[in-house]
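Page 47, continued from p. 46.
Same chain as before, 160 aa.
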Amino acid sequence: MQVTREVPTAALRAGFVNLQHCDGHAAIWTPADIASMDPNCTANGTCPDGAGVNPNALGYLNQFPLPNGSLLGDGVNFGSFSFSSPSPIKLNTYIAKLDYNLSSKQRLFVRGNLQNDNSVDVRQYPIPHQIPSALTIPRALRLDMSGPYRISVVNNLRYG
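Result:
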């Protein structure tokens, strides 16, 4: 299945923010520009990581793959990343039925159903260890016993 996700561009990963002003001209904020926006930022005060772009945010943004298209995003700070994701589905159903004659006039049968449905969701990003899956195992059991109670009445017991 083809999947498309929005990812940060290489410039945004490096701390450069591209802006489009109301009057139509573009501007680029460099990491130094961002650091100068808060002159009161100190490492031991309001900004524990120092002035500028947060290195933890950059580390997070660098976990994503680079864009390979422009279907999503603004085309400046964010682009799109398309990839093929496996989405296997296994639908296994097991049914067993047992018929038994208790006597010449009484019958018993038991039937059991088991569904083993396993589906893997499409991946958020092509990361090998990221495999969200859903496993459902509905079960059913039925018991049916019938036989004459009297000559004109049949006793029928059912469960499940």
